[in-house]
Amino acid sequence: xxxxxxxVFVNGGxxxxxxxxxxxxxxxxxxxxxxxxxxxxxxGHQLVVKGPQPGFPLTTFVEVIGIADTDRSIRAEIWNNFGxxxxxxxxxxxxxxxxxxxxxxxx
Amino acid sequence: MYSGEFDGAAAFSGGGFMPSQATxxxxxxxxxxxxxxxxxxxxxxxxxxxxxxxxxxxxxSIDGADVxxxxxxxxxxxxxxxxxxxxxxxxxxxxxxxxxxxAHEQMEFNEVNQISKGMYVRVYGHLKAFQDKRSxxxxxxxxxxxxxxxxxxxxxxxxxxxxxxxxxxGSSNQPxxxxxxxxxxxxxxxxxxxxxxxxxxxxxxxxxFLRRPEFLANNNGVHRNVISQQLNLPMDKLMSLxxxxxxxxxxxxxxxxxxxxx
Lengths: 107, 262
What we know:
The complex is a heterodimer.
Chain A: E1 8-9, E2 22-33, E3 36-41, E4 46-50, E5 61-68, E6 73-81, H1 88-98
Parallel strand pairs in A: 1-2, 4-6
Antiparallel strand pairs in A: 2-3, 2-5, 3-4, 5-6
Chain B: H1 8-13, H2 19-22, E1 41-43, H3 46-50, E2 61-62, E3 65-66, E4 69-82, E5 85-91, E6 96-102, H4 106-113, E7 120-130, E8 133-143, H5 148-167, H6 199-210, H7 213-216, H8 224-231, H9 235-239, H10 245-248, H11 251-258
Parallel strand pairs in B: 1-4, 6-8
Antiparallel strand pairs in B: 2-3, 4-5, 4-7, 5-6, 7-8
């Protein structure tokens, strides 16, 4: 069992707490081009995801796991398609809880 | 001596009969954690699993709840085929844990063949420990299809931890479950023993329930049966509460009653 490299559940607003650290978040893809993927976080912030894009087409909602370069950009390591429907509100609430009083269950 | 079907009530009415010989109520002080027939299913994060306190996996517990079967949701980082044993390394974002799945029958092979690296899976299994290394002996692995299940799983982890630490006071006494069938799996002990540590917590539960927006907006009040069912409170406990009218009625309703208007 290894808990040395967790990926913290974050939304756009929480990323500033984890700059330089490994995070995971779900974005709604707005635009995808050579400069990266622009998406909307579950709390409505615009995020830019850089790094080698996956070899498969992205769905509307994508989970990105990687390093937070800044409070609005991520250097992606892993991309996971989450489909075209996703409950962003619940995920956003989870991010709040996972970084609040229940942080000890996650990191 | 008694013949035929034993009638406890009849036995007591005759006098000179020891109740302890007639009843079969389990001793509340008995250690449920040692009852091997008790099975719990707990959603957990790998971080929680890493912090379990126990000498061996057969007596692990967390927040006062016995840990028997657990469920985790994570990404398959690595797979090893050592047929008939298949080993998966699952990363749920809080940590990584090794899960072993043994396959002997075609159905089990089919299940394993569905799993591929990089995929999100739901794992059910028993915790095992070997030389200070904890892993899962999985008896079910299935791919996640609806990714809201990931959110749901972690919210459940939070809920169960909250339930076991605050609502139950962290004691080994397991209260009756709520009405939701979804939550029954968290409590394998279907005990009729229902207790609170302090009477005032029932008051607060009822008050919080009555203050829900849907009830505040409704001037017709809430029937005691609804309160009893929703909060899973026995009626006698509900009726014994000493809630003042000022707590129960909204200010407008109270003044209307005092003025004799409806």
